Amino acid sequence: MPSLTGVSPRYAKIPYQGMMRLGVQVGTPFLPADSSVRLVSALLKLEGIGGGGLAVRLGIIVDVSESMRLPILDQSVLDRLRREGRVRQATRDGVPVWEVIGPPPPELLTAQRALDAVKTALAQIVERMGPSDQFFVVAFAGQAQTVVPLSQASDRRLLLSRLDDLDRANLGDETRLALGLREALLNTQGRQEGTDLTRWIVLTDGFAQDESDCRTVAAQAAEIGVGISTIGLGAQFNDDLMVSLADQTGGNAEWVPVQEDIPTALAREFESVRKVAVARAELLLALTQGVEVRKVLRVRPQLAPAPTVAREKRQFAVQLGDLEEGEPVHVLIEFLAPPRPEGMFRLARAELKGAGDRRVSADVIVTYTRDERQIAFRDPEVIRAVEAVTAADLQTRALRDLQRGEVDSATKKLQSAATRLLNLGRQKEAHQIQELAEKLEETGSAAPEETKRIRYQTRRLTST
After folding, report:
1. Based on the number of CB atoms within 10 Å of its own CB, is 292 exposed (0-12), middle (13-18) or buried (19 or more)?
2. Residue 301, preceding bond cis, omega within 30 degrees?
3. C-alpha to C-alpha distance for 403 and 415, rounded to whole angstroms
4. pTM for the whole thing?
5. Beta carbons of 137 and 122 less than 8 angstroms apart
6. 241-270, pLDDT tens digit by residue?
7. According to a count of CB atoms within 10 Å of the terminal CB, is the N or C end of the chain lower?
Protein backbone atom coordinates (compact mmCIF):
# COMPACT_ATOMS: atom_id res chain seq x y z
CA MET A 1 0.00 0.00 0.00
CA PRO A 2 1.15 3.58 -0.51
CA SER A 3 1.72 5.93 2.36
CA LEU A 4 -1.85 6.92 3.22
CA THR A 5 -1.89 10.45 4.55
CA GLY A 6 -4.41 13.21 5.02
CA VAL A 7 -7.80 13.47 6.63
CA SER A 8 -11.33 12.47 5.75
CA PRO A 9 -13.58 15.40 4.88
CA ARG A 10 -17.33 15.13 5.00
CA TYR A 11 -18.94 14.82 1.60
CA ALA A 12 -22.18 16.50 0.67
CA LYS A 13 -25.34 14.62 -0.29
CA ILE A 14 -25.95 16.30 -3.62
CA PRO A 15 -28.99 15.33 -5.74
CA TYR A 16 -27.62 13.39 -8.69
CA GLN A 17 -28.05 14.92 -12.14
CA GLY A 18 -26.78 13.80 -15.51
CA MET A 19 -25.36 10.45 -16.60
CA MET A 20 -22.27 10.14 -14.44
CA ARG A 21 -20.22 7.05 -15.19
CA LEU A 22 -16.99 5.49 -13.95
CA GLY A 23 -14.89 3.66 -16.51
CA VAL A 24 -11.65 1.69 -16.19
CA GLN A 25 -8.84 1.23 -18.70
CA VAL A 26 -5.93 -1.04 -17.82
CA GLY A 27 -2.56 -0.41 -19.41
CA THR A 28 -1.66 -4.13 -19.45
CA PRO A 29 -5.01 -5.98 -19.25
CA PHE A 30 -3.32 -9.35 -19.92
CA LEU A 31 -0.67 -10.67 -17.55
CA PRO A 32 1.52 -13.76 -17.85
CA ALA A 33 0.08 -16.61 -15.78
CA ASP A 34 2.11 -18.13 -12.93
CA SER A 35 4.77 -15.45 -13.21
CA SER A 36 6.03 -12.85 -10.72
CA VAL A 37 4.49 -9.74 -9.17
CA ARG A 38 3.53 -7.33 -11.96
CA LEU A 39 3.06 -3.57 -12.07
CA VAL A 40 -0.34 -2.69 -13.54
CA SER A 41 -1.37 0.88 -14.36
CA ALA A 42 -5.10 1.60 -14.51
CA LEU A 43 -6.85 4.79 -15.60
CA LEU A 44 -10.13 5.38 -13.76
CA LYS A 45 -12.25 7.86 -15.72
CA LEU A 46 -15.16 9.67 -14.12
CA GLU A 47 -17.20 11.39 -16.82
CA GLY A 48 -20.67 12.76 -17.45
CA ILE A 49 -20.65 14.89 -14.30
CA GLY A 50 -23.82 16.98 -14.24
CA GLY A 51 -25.47 19.44 -11.88
CA GLY A 52 -23.82 22.56 -10.53
CA GLY A 53 -25.32 25.59 -8.86
CA LEU A 54 -24.40 24.69 -5.29
CA ALA A 55 -24.64 27.28 -2.53
CA VAL A 56 -21.09 28.54 -1.95
CA ARG A 57 -19.19 29.99 0.98
CA LEU A 58 -16.27 31.86 -0.60
CA GLY A 59 -13.39 33.10 1.55
CA ILE A 60 -10.73 35.40 0.08
CA ILE A 61 -7.39 35.56 1.91
CA VAL A 62 -5.38 38.54 0.62
CA ASP A 63 -1.74 39.49 1.21
CA VAL A 64 -1.70 43.22 2.08
CA SER A 65 2.01 43.58 2.81
CA GLU A 66 3.94 46.54 1.42
CA SER A 67 4.88 44.86 -1.86
CA MET A 68 1.16 44.47 -2.73
CA ARG A 69 0.66 48.23 -2.21
CA LEU A 70 3.52 49.45 -4.41
CA PRO A 71 2.51 51.09 -7.74
CA ILE A 72 3.61 49.23 -10.86
CA LEU A 73 5.08 51.45 -13.58
CA ASP A 74 4.92 50.69 -17.26
CA GLN A 75 8.21 49.17 -18.48
CA SER A 76 8.93 52.09 -20.82
CA VAL A 77 8.51 54.58 -17.94
CA LEU A 78 10.73 52.48 -15.69
CA ASP A 79 13.40 52.27 -18.41
CA ARG A 80 13.36 56.07 -18.77
CA LEU A 81 13.70 56.60 -15.01
CA ARG A 82 16.60 54.13 -14.91
CA ARG A 83 18.41 56.05 -17.67
CA GLU A 84 17.83 59.28 -15.75
CA GLY A 85 19.19 57.75 -12.53
CA ARG A 86 15.94 58.37 -10.68
CA VAL A 87 15.38 54.82 -9.38
CA ARG A 88 17.45 52.27 -7.45
CA GLN A 89 16.94 48.63 -6.56
CA ALA A 90 15.55 47.72 -3.13
CA THR A 91 13.69 44.88 -1.43
CA ARG A 92 10.22 45.06 0.09
CA ASP A 93 8.80 42.03 1.90
CA GLY A 94 11.41 39.89 0.18
CA VAL A 95 10.35 41.14 -3.26
CA PRO A 96 12.88 43.06 -5.45
CA VAL A 97 11.51 46.50 -6.39
CA TRP A 98 12.66 49.79 -7.90
CA GLU A 99 12.68 52.68 -5.43
CA VAL A 100 12.15 56.23 -6.73
CA ILE A 101 14.82 58.77 -5.82
CA GLY A 102 13.57 62.30 -5.28
CA PRO A 103 10.15 63.68 -6.29
CA PRO A 104 7.78 61.03 -7.70
CA PRO A 105 7.13 61.24 -11.45
CA PRO A 106 3.52 61.99 -12.53
CA GLU A 107 3.10 58.43 -13.82
CA LEU A 108 3.65 57.09 -10.30
CA LEU A 109 0.59 58.89 -8.96
CA THR A 110 -1.75 57.13 -11.38
CA ALA A 111 -0.06 53.71 -11.54
CA GLN A 112 -2.12 50.75 -10.37
CA ARG A 113 -1.06 48.50 -7.50
CA ALA A 114 -1.55 44.74 -7.18
CA LEU A 115 -3.97 45.44 -4.33
CA ASP A 116 -6.06 47.66 -6.63
CA ALA A 117 -6.36 44.80 -9.12
CA VAL A 118 -7.46 42.48 -6.29
CA LYS A 119 -10.15 44.91 -5.14
CA THR A 120 -11.46 45.28 -8.70
CA ALA A 121 -11.61 41.49 -9.08
CA LEU A 122 -13.39 41.02 -5.73
CA ALA A 123 -16.02 43.64 -6.62
CA GLN A 124 -16.74 41.76 -9.85
CA ILE A 125 -17.11 38.47 -7.96
CA VAL A 126 -19.50 39.95 -5.38
CA GLU A 127 -21.73 41.23 -8.20
CA ARG A 128 -21.94 37.73 -9.68
CA MET A 129 -22.60 35.71 -6.53
CA GLY A 130 -26.01 34.16 -5.93
CA PRO A 131 -28.41 35.13 -3.12
CA SER A 132 -27.70 31.91 -1.20
CA ASP A 133 -23.91 32.34 -1.36
CA GLN A 134 -21.76 33.63 1.48
CA PHE A 135 -18.58 35.70 1.34
CA PHE A 136 -15.79 36.86 3.63
CA VAL A 137 -12.40 38.53 3.21
CA VAL A 138 -9.31 38.12 5.39
CA ALA A 139 -6.24 40.37 5.08
CA PHE A 140 -2.81 39.25 6.25
CA ALA A 141 0.81 40.35 6.39
CA GLY A 142 2.70 40.24 9.71
CA GLN A 143 -0.73 39.96 11.36
CA ALA A 144 -4.19 39.01 10.12
CA GLN A 145 -7.70 40.38 10.45
CA THR A 146 -11.15 39.83 9.00
CA VAL A 147 -11.90 42.77 6.69
CA VAL A 148 -15.31 41.57 5.48
CA PRO A 149 -16.99 39.26 8.02
CA LEU A 150 -18.95 36.27 6.81
CA SER A 151 -22.02 37.76 5.09
CA GLN A 152 -24.75 36.83 2.65
CA ALA A 153 -23.70 37.75 -0.87
CA SER A 154 -27.15 39.25 -1.41
CA ASP A 155 -26.06 42.22 0.76
CA ARG A 156 -23.87 43.49 -2.07
CA ARG A 157 -23.88 47.15 -1.10
CA LEU A 158 -22.39 46.42 2.31
CA LEU A 159 -19.82 43.99 0.92
CA LEU A 160 -18.65 46.38 -1.77
CA SER A 161 -18.28 49.22 0.73
CA ARG A 162 -16.11 47.06 2.98
CA LEU A 163 -13.60 46.15 0.24
CA ASP A 164 -11.89 49.52 0.67
CA ASP A 165 -10.97 48.40 4.18
CA LEU A 166 -8.20 46.33 2.55
CA ASP A 167 -6.32 49.61 2.07
CA ARG A 168 -6.74 50.52 5.71
CA ALA A 169 -5.50 47.18 7.05
CA ASN A 170 -2.09 48.07 8.54
CA LEU A 171 -0.77 44.61 9.37
CA GLY A 172 2.99 44.97 8.98
CA ASP A 173 5.37 44.00 6.20
CA GLU A 174 6.04 40.30 6.76
CA THR A 175 4.23 37.46 4.97
CA ARG A 176 2.70 35.19 7.60
CA LEU A 177 0.13 33.30 5.62
CA ALA A 178 -0.72 30.84 8.42
CA LEU A 179 -2.22 33.73 10.40
CA GLY A 180 -4.51 34.50 7.48
CA LEU A 181 -5.50 30.85 7.16
CA ARG A 182 -6.31 30.65 10.88
CA GLU A 183 -8.46 33.77 10.61
CA ALA A 184 -10.30 32.18 7.69
CA LEU A 185 -10.85 29.07 9.80
CA LEU A 186 -12.58 31.20 12.43
CA ASN A 187 -14.97 32.43 9.72
CA THR A 188 -15.70 28.87 8.64
CA GLN A 189 -15.76 26.47 11.60
CA GLY A 190 -19.21 25.61 12.87
CA ARG A 191 -20.92 27.54 10.05
CA GLN A 192 -21.30 24.88 7.36
CA GLU A 193 -25.10 24.66 7.59
CA GLY A 194 -26.98 25.89 4.55
CA THR A 195 -23.89 25.84 2.35
CA ASP A 196 -22.95 23.00 0.01
CA LEU A 197 -19.40 24.07 -0.82
CA THR A 198 -16.67 26.03 0.96
CA ARG A 199 -13.67 27.36 -0.95
CA TRP A 200 -10.87 29.68 0.14
CA ILE A 201 -8.77 31.58 -2.38
CA VAL A 202 -5.30 32.74 -1.28
CA LEU A 203 -3.55 35.60 -3.12
CA THR A 204 0.04 36.46 -2.27
CA ASP A 205 3.17 37.84 -3.91
CA GLY A 206 5.51 37.17 -0.99
CA PHE A 207 7.49 34.30 0.48
CA ALA A 208 5.47 32.88 3.39
CA GLN A 209 7.62 32.66 6.51
CA ASP A 210 5.50 30.05 8.31
CA GLU A 211 5.29 27.11 5.90
CA SER A 212 4.89 24.39 8.55
CA ASP A 213 2.04 26.24 10.24
CA CYS A 214 0.36 26.78 6.87
CA ARG A 215 0.29 23.03 6.22
CA THR A 216 -1.11 22.39 9.70
CA VAL A 217 -4.01 24.82 9.21
CA ALA A 218 -4.63 23.44 5.72
CA ALA A 219 -5.04 19.96 7.20
CA GLN A 220 -7.61 21.35 9.64
CA ALA A 221 -9.43 23.04 6.77
CA ALA A 222 -9.47 19.81 4.74
CA GLU A 223 -10.93 17.96 7.72
CA ILE A 224 -14.05 20.14 7.64
CA GLY A 225 -14.32 19.97 3.85
CA VAL A 226 -12.65 23.24 2.78
CA GLY A 227 -10.79 23.40 -0.52
CA ILE A 228 -7.97 25.96 -0.76
CA SER A 229 -7.12 27.45 -4.14
CA THR A 230 -3.94 29.50 -4.41
CA ILE A 231 -2.94 32.31 -6.75
CA GLY A 232 0.73 33.25 -6.64
CA LEU A 233 1.60 36.71 -7.97
CA GLY A 234 4.89 37.71 -9.57
CA ALA A 235 8.09 35.73 -9.12
CA GLN A 236 9.02 35.76 -5.42
CA PHE A 237 6.35 33.66 -3.68
CA ASN A 238 7.12 30.08 -2.58
CA ASP A 239 5.35 28.09 -5.26
CA ASP A 240 6.14 24.77 -3.56
CA LEU A 241 3.93 25.78 -0.65
CA MET A 242 1.17 27.26 -2.81
CA VAL A 243 0.90 24.11 -4.92
CA SER A 244 1.00 21.76 -1.93
CA LEU A 245 -1.77 23.69 -0.10
CA ALA A 246 -4.01 23.27 -3.14
CA ASP A 247 -3.17 19.58 -3.54
CA GLN A 248 -3.61 18.90 0.18
CA THR A 249 -7.18 20.25 0.16
CA GLY A 250 -8.41 19.55 -3.37
CA GLY A 251 -8.19 23.15 -4.59
CA ASN A 252 -6.58 24.69 -7.68
CA ALA A 253 -3.16 26.32 -8.02
CA GLU A 254 -2.43 29.14 -10.44
CA TRP A 255 0.44 31.49 -11.19
CA VAL A 256 -0.16 35.10 -12.30
CA PRO A 257 3.11 36.67 -13.54
CA VAL A 258 1.73 40.22 -13.96
CA GLN A 259 -0.83 42.08 -11.87
CA GLU A 260 -2.99 43.00 -14.86
CA ASP A 261 -4.10 39.36 -15.02
CA ILE A 262 -5.30 39.19 -11.40
CA PRO A 263 -8.99 39.89 -12.23
CA THR A 264 -8.95 37.24 -14.96
CA ALA A 265 -7.38 34.66 -12.65
CA LEU A 266 -9.85 35.35 -9.84
CA ALA A 267 -12.80 35.27 -12.23
CA ARG A 268 -11.59 31.95 -13.63
CA GLU A 269 -11.37 30.46 -10.13
CA PHE A 270 -14.83 31.79 -9.25
CA GLU A 271 -16.29 30.23 -12.41
CA SER A 272 -14.62 26.95 -11.43
CA VAL A 273 -16.37 27.10 -8.05
CA ARG A 274 -19.72 27.90 -9.65
CA LYS A 275 -19.45 24.82 -11.87
CA VAL A 276 -18.98 22.39 -8.97
CA ALA A 277 -21.62 19.65 -9.14
CA VAL A 278 -20.34 17.28 -6.45
CA ALA A 279 -18.61 18.62 -3.36
CA ARG A 280 -15.80 16.75 -1.59
CA ALA A 281 -16.08 13.57 -3.63
CA GLU A 282 -14.19 10.41 -2.70
CA LEU A 283 -13.32 7.34 -4.73
CA LEU A 284 -13.46 4.34 -2.41
CA LEU A 285 -11.06 1.57 -3.44
CA ALA A 286 -11.40 -1.98 -2.07
CA LEU A 287 -8.37 -4.15 -2.86
CA THR A 288 -8.52 -7.90 -3.41
CA GLN A 289 -6.30 -9.99 -1.15
CA GLY A 290 -2.71 -10.00 -2.39
CA VAL A 291 -3.03 -6.75 -4.37
CA GLU A 292 -1.15 -3.63 -3.29
CA VAL A 293 -1.16 -0.03 -4.53
CA ARG A 294 2.08 1.82 -5.23
CA LYS A 295 0.92 5.23 -6.43
CA VAL A 296 -2.26 7.27 -6.94
CA LEU A 297 -2.34 10.43 -9.07
CA ARG A 298 -5.01 12.68 -10.51
CA VAL A 299 -4.18 13.25 -14.16
CA ARG A 300 -7.24 15.31 -15.12
CA PRO A 301 -8.25 18.09 -14.86
CA GLN A 302 -4.75 18.76 -13.50
CA LEU A 303 -1.84 16.47 -12.84
CA ALA A 304 -1.45 16.34 -9.05
CA PRO A 305 -1.12 13.89 -6.14
CA ALA A 306 -4.42 12.43 -4.94
CA PRO A 307 -4.62 12.46 -1.13
CA THR A 308 -5.59 9.05 0.24
CA VAL A 309 -7.08 8.00 3.55
CA ALA A 310 -7.03 4.50 5.05
CA ARG A 311 -10.45 3.09 5.87
CA GLU A 312 -11.36 -0.50 6.71
CA LYS A 313 -9.01 -3.39 6.10
CA ARG A 314 -7.74 -3.30 2.51
CA GLN A 315 -9.86 -0.22 1.73
CA PHE A 316 -8.91 3.41 1.30
CA ALA A 317 -10.44 6.58 -0.08
CA VAL A 318 -8.94 8.60 -2.92
CA GLN A 319 -9.99 12.20 -2.32
CA LEU A 320 -11.04 13.83 -5.57
CA GLY A 321 -12.03 17.21 -4.19
CA ASP A 322 -14.87 19.13 -5.84
CA LEU A 323 -16.11 17.78 -9.19
CA GLU A 324 -17.07 20.34 -11.83
CA GLU A 325 -19.96 19.95 -14.22
CA GLY A 326 -18.79 18.60 -17.58
CA GLU A 327 -15.13 18.31 -16.44
CA PRO A 328 -13.79 14.73 -16.70
CA VAL A 329 -11.76 13.48 -13.74
CA HIS A 330 -9.10 10.85 -14.46
CA VAL A 331 -7.13 9.03 -11.77
CA LEU A 332 -4.05 6.92 -12.51
CA ILE A 333 -3.44 4.07 -10.05
CA GLU A 334 -0.42 1.77 -10.05
CA PHE A 335 -1.25 -1.68 -8.68
CA LEU A 336 1.10 -4.51 -7.78
CA ALA A 337 -0.66 -7.64 -9.01
CA PRO A 338 0.26 -11.02 -7.39
CA PRO A 339 1.21 -14.17 -9.35
CA ARG A 340 -1.93 -16.06 -10.45
CA PRO A 341 -2.97 -19.00 -12.60
CA GLU A 342 -4.87 -18.48 -15.86
CA GLY A 343 -8.21 -16.69 -15.67
CA MET A 344 -9.83 -13.34 -14.92
CA PHE A 345 -8.98 -11.61 -11.65
CA ARG A 346 -10.36 -8.48 -9.99
CA LEU A 347 -7.61 -6.26 -8.62
CA ALA A 348 -9.98 -3.80 -6.95
CA ARG A 349 -13.47 -2.39 -6.85
CA ALA A 350 -13.90 1.39 -7.09
CA GLU A 351 -16.98 3.33 -6.00
CA LEU A 352 -17.69 7.06 -6.03
CA LYS A 353 -19.03 8.63 -2.84
CA GLY A 354 -20.56 12.07 -2.90
CA ALA A 355 -22.93 11.72 -5.86
CA GLY A 356 -26.11 11.51 -3.83
CA ASP A 357 -27.96 8.21 -3.72
CA ARG A 358 -26.76 6.94 -7.07
CA ARG A 359 -24.19 4.15 -7.02
CA VAL A 360 -21.31 4.81 -9.42
CA SER A 361 -18.81 1.95 -9.38
CA ALA A 362 -16.49 -0.14 -11.54
CA ASP A 363 -14.09 -3.09 -11.24
CA VAL A 364 -10.42 -3.12 -12.17
CA ILE A 365 -9.97 -6.49 -13.88
CA VAL A 366 -7.01 -8.24 -15.51
CA THR A 367 -6.74 -11.59 -17.26
CA TYR A 368 -3.89 -14.00 -16.60
CA THR A 369 -2.97 -15.88 -19.76
CA ARG A 370 -0.21 -17.73 -21.61
CA ASP A 371 -1.06 -16.14 -24.97
CA GLU A 372 2.01 -14.06 -25.86
CA ARG A 373 0.07 -11.91 -28.32
CA GLN A 374 -2.38 -10.86 -25.63
CA ILE A 375 0.39 -10.27 -23.10
CA ALA A 376 2.08 -7.87 -25.54
CA PHE A 377 -0.99 -5.61 -25.77
CA ARG A 378 -0.72 -2.09 -24.29
CA ASP A 379 -3.59 0.36 -23.99
CA PRO A 380 -2.27 3.51 -25.76
CA GLU A 381 -4.25 6.03 -23.66
CA VAL A 382 -3.05 4.58 -20.37
CA ILE A 383 0.54 4.35 -21.58
CA ARG A 384 0.37 7.97 -22.73
CA ALA A 385 -0.86 9.01 -19.28
CA VAL A 386 1.99 7.08 -17.65
CA GLU A 387 4.53 8.78 -19.94
CA ALA A 388 3.13 12.21 -19.10
CA VAL A 389 3.30 11.42 -15.38
CA THR A 390 6.91 10.27 -15.77
CA ALA A 391 7.83 13.48 -17.64
CA ALA A 392 6.15 15.57 -14.96
CA ASP A 393 7.94 13.68 -12.19
CA LEU A 394 11.30 14.30 -13.89
CA GLN A 395 10.57 18.03 -14.06
CA THR A 396 9.49 18.20 -10.42
CA ARG A 397 12.58 16.34 -9.25
CA ALA A 398 14.76 18.58 -11.42
CA LEU A 399 13.36 21.70 -9.73
CA ARG A 400 14.07 20.18 -6.33
CA ASP A 401 17.63 19.38 -7.38
CA LEU A 402 18.00 22.97 -8.53
CA GLN A 403 16.82 24.28 -5.15
CA ARG A 404 19.54 22.16 -3.51
CA GLY A 405 22.17 23.50 -5.91
CA GLU A 406 22.55 20.17 -7.76
CA VAL A 407 22.69 21.74 -11.22
CA ASP A 408 24.13 18.77 -13.15
CA SER A 409 21.47 16.41 -11.83
CA ALA A 410 18.71 18.94 -12.56
CA THR A 411 19.98 19.44 -16.11
CA LYS A 412 19.98 15.71 -16.90
CA LYS A 413 16.45 15.26 -15.57
CA LEU A 414 15.18 18.19 -17.63
CA GLN A 415 16.81 16.75 -20.77
CA SER A 416 15.14 13.39 -20.13
CA ALA A 417 11.80 15.12 -19.57
CA ALA A 418 12.17 17.06 -22.83
CA THR A 419 12.74 13.80 -24.73
CA ARG A 420 9.61 12.23 -23.26
CA LEU A 421 7.56 15.32 -24.04
CA LEU A 422 8.71 15.19 -27.66
CA ASN A 423 7.59 11.56 -27.82
CA LEU A 424 4.20 12.68 -26.52
CA GLY A 425 3.94 15.32 -29.23
CA ARG A 426 4.24 18.21 -26.76
CA GLN A 427 6.75 20.18 -28.82
CA LYS A 428 6.13 23.54 -27.15
CA GLU A 429 6.66 22.21 -23.63
CA ALA A 430 9.64 20.13 -24.74
CA HIS A 431 11.28 23.18 -26.31
CA GLN A 432 10.85 25.24 -23.14
CA ILE A 433 12.27 22.46 -20.97
CA GLN A 434 15.22 21.99 -23.31
CA GLU A 435 15.92 25.74 -23.32
CA LEU A 436 16.02 25.74 -19.52
CA ALA A 437 18.36 22.74 -19.50
CA GLU A 438 20.72 24.51 -21.93
CA LYS A 439 20.67 27.66 -19.81
CA LEU A 440 21.57 25.64 -16.71
CA GLU A 441 24.50 24.11 -18.58
CA GLU A 442 25.74 27.57 -19.59
CA THR A 443 25.05 29.66 -16.48
CA GLY A 444 24.32 27.22 -13.66
CA SER A 445 21.18 29.09 -12.61
CA ALA A 446 17.61 29.89 -13.66
CA ALA A 447 15.36 32.90 -13.03
CA PRO A 448 12.42 32.42 -10.63
CA GLU A 449 10.00 33.14 -13.48
CA GLU A 450 11.44 30.25 -15.48
CA THR A 451 11.14 27.67 -12.71
CA LYS A 452 7.59 28.81 -11.85
CA ARG A 453 6.54 28.54 -15.48
CA ILE A 454 7.80 24.96 -15.57
CA ARG A 455 6.14 24.01 -12.26
CA TYR A 456 2.69 25.30 -13.20
CA GLN A 457 2.92 24.16 -16.80
CA THR A 458 3.72 20.65 -15.60
CA ARG A 459 0.34 20.43 -13.87
CA ARG A 460 -1.42 20.93 -17.22
CA LEU A 461 0.42 18.26 -19.19
CA THR A 462 -2.58 15.90 -19.16
CA SER A 463 -5.38 18.46 -19.33
CA THR A 464 -5.63 18.47 -23.13
Report:
1. middle
2. yes
3. 17
4. 0.85
5. yes
6. 999 999 999 999 999 988 889 999 999 999
7. C
